[in-house]
Amino acid sequence: MPSVEYYVEVSKQNFQVKVYSLLCLVLVAVIGFYGYVRVQEYLALQEIVAESDELISNLELEAATERAQYESVKGEFSAFLESLNKKMENIFPVADNYILLTRQFDYIEDSFATLTNTFQISNLVFSEPVYLEDYSILPVRVTIASSLVNFDNFLKLIENSGDFDAETRLMDLTSVRLSFPSGANTKNNEIINFTVSLNAYFQ
Fold this sequence. Notes:
The protein has helices spanning about 5-90, 100-110, 150-160, and strands at about 120-125, 130, 135-145, 170-180, 185, 190-200. The chain is α+β, with helices and mostly antiparallel strands. It has 2 domains: about 1-90; about 100-200, 2-Layer Sandwich (Alpha-Beta Plaits). The longest helix has about 90 residues, at about 5-90. It is rod-shaped, with a radius of gyration of 48 Å. The relative contact order is 0.10.
């Protein structure tokens, strides 16, 4: 028959087994919980990475769009600035540029003259430039034979000079002298001779 010591030893071993089993269960639970937390962190990290990749992709696309728009606007602005500088060179040049002004008067003569409305420049004289602080003046004297219609057209052109659309040199009248030759007409349109003194401006 087993002794008391035997039963005590068996009971002690059973208790130790239970304690060990409990510790194993606790350890498994801790490891499982830790693994679950790590997996959740990994999944969350993957989601963040995916969102970051999408955000980066969207930002790159937005940046490319903005860059394309900037280049387009830059090109349009450069073209506008170039056109503006060209117009300014015709309207308000940096020098007296009497050669360009002579060409403008030639163009005016060609565009005004028709079979029924005379416009002929017979004399074009430039005086010495006058240099002022903010701008300079090139005095001009022009003698013209013209119909009354083109005389009026010429005065309007000088009045509207400096317009960016017409690109006519900025000028103003200082004096006008008229004469009406007897018997001079073009198909019943009276011809007048006139001499105008102008100031053509430059920088």
